[in-house]
Amino acid sequence: MTTNWPGIPNSVALRRAYAGTEIYAGTAVTPTFRLYGKMVLNPKRPLADREEFAGTFFADYTPVYGPWEVDGTYEQPLTYEDLAILPRYSLAGGSAGVSDGQATPGYLYTRRPHATRIDFDAMTLESGVPGMPWRATDLFFPEFTISGDIDDSEAAWKWSSPVKAATTDLIAATTGTATGGSTSTVVKTAAGWTVNQFQGGYVRMLTGTAGNIGQVREIASNDATTLTLVGLFPSAVANTDTFEISGMFTAGIADRTRETIDAPGTLLYLDGSSAIGTTLQTMRFISFSVTYQSGVTGMKRFMENVDTLSSKPDQGKKRVVGQVRLEFDNRDQYDAWKAKTVRKIRIKKEGSTIDTGAATKKLGQIDVYAAQWSEMSVDERQNNITCTWGFRGFVDATEGVPFQILAKNKLNVLP
């Protein structure tokens, strides 16, 4: 005999996130790939103050709602594959990689901010846990931080970002009235369901047979008229009992191959007059973070928008900031800071081999072309003095941008 556990197992461990790139911002699409980080969305519907004098000390009589607002956070250890995917929803859109032409080709994805165009993509996102899935539209990252630290136990490059979306809501449930069933089935004659469209979902009994009301069971399978359950209801489902089938994630979103960008082995180059990527920092480099601020604060609202915002973004200035932490064992960076010397920063990590004959490898790389040290912070690590150098990246006259991100992997097409 198997114990019948009640309810939906809304465990954090079962979280998932499925995404698809929208063709038109705010128009939902079917997700095509998985995200592997922690996505947290917070829908809000703020209440406004309205001046109402009813001869009492009470302040609130008539509720006045603002539009739905959706924000949140997303974070994950970075992979060479996700370094090509995630920045398209903040920095630069598109999915074209450039082949290196080898027998086993690698594909290089270059992400640069555009000077005069809103150039990022938006996604439709399904997230949550089975039985309680949410769908968001027009979702993007208004800024992001890529970081790495040799002292971090996770030992990986990391992505963290705030999130904005135009809408989010629980995916619609399916309700119905049973024409019969048993303790392990729910039958609805002529329901016309697609075979196994509810597999992995949950059915909850709403009214009817007293012992079953409020009971929830996982759906093992279904055909056109019958739900077959995992576990048993206390009593047989009877004619006229009503039920609700939970909203469903898009089916068939498979795992994809990923390789983590490990923090150990990450290289830092700091150059002044020499070309970027010339002067390697050895036995000094401890950690880094690079933050890109897209300047998009959210979506605008117009008079025709009743409960929602429009899909038109509010675009401000784009900016790159960050920091690197080094052992403070010589004065080169101090002298550069004091003299206001421009620094070229390259942070680079190679991964596994793509083509053995050509010895090509996966790549994660961040180039900041015209960084200026903005501040220094001296502290300690183990038995040594360290210094964290904050910087801002300025537009380079030759490159025309403040920075770029490069990702090389085996994906000829992004999901």
Quick rundown:
This protein is 3% helix and 43% strand.
Description:
With 415 residues, the chain is mainly beta. The protein is built from 2 helices and 27 strands. It has helices spanning 82-85, 332-338; strands at 16-21, 33-35, 38-44, 69-77, 98-99, 107-111, 123-129, 132-139, 143-149, 158-165, 167-170, 174-177, 180-181, 185-187, 202-207, 216-222, 226-230, 242-245, 267-271, 285-293, 296-299, 313-315, 319-327, 343-355, 360-381, 384-393, 403-409. The protein is globular, with a radius of gyration of 27 Å. The model has no long low-confidence stretch (mean pLDDT 95).
Helix-strand layout with pairing:
Blueprint: E1 16-21, E2 33-35, E3 38-44, E4 69-77, H1 82-85, E5 98-99, E6 107-111, E7 123-129, E8 132-139, E9 143-149, E10 158-165, E11 167-170, E12 174-177, E13 180-181, E14 185-187, E15 202-207, E16 216-222, E17 226-230, E18 242-245, E19 267-271, E20 285-293, E21 296-299, E22 313-315, E23 319-327, H2 332-338, E24 343-355, E25 360-381, E26 384-393, E27 403-409
- Please bin the fraction of helical residues: under 10%
Order of helices and strands: EEEEHEEEEEEEEEEEEEEEEEEEHEEEE
Low-confidence stretches: none
Give the strand content: 35-45%
Residue-averaged pLDDT, rounded? Answer: 95
Shape category: globular
Secondary-structure-derived class: mainly beta
How many angstroms separate the termini? 44 Å
Give structural attributes.
415 residues, mainly beta, 13-stranded antiparallel β-sheet
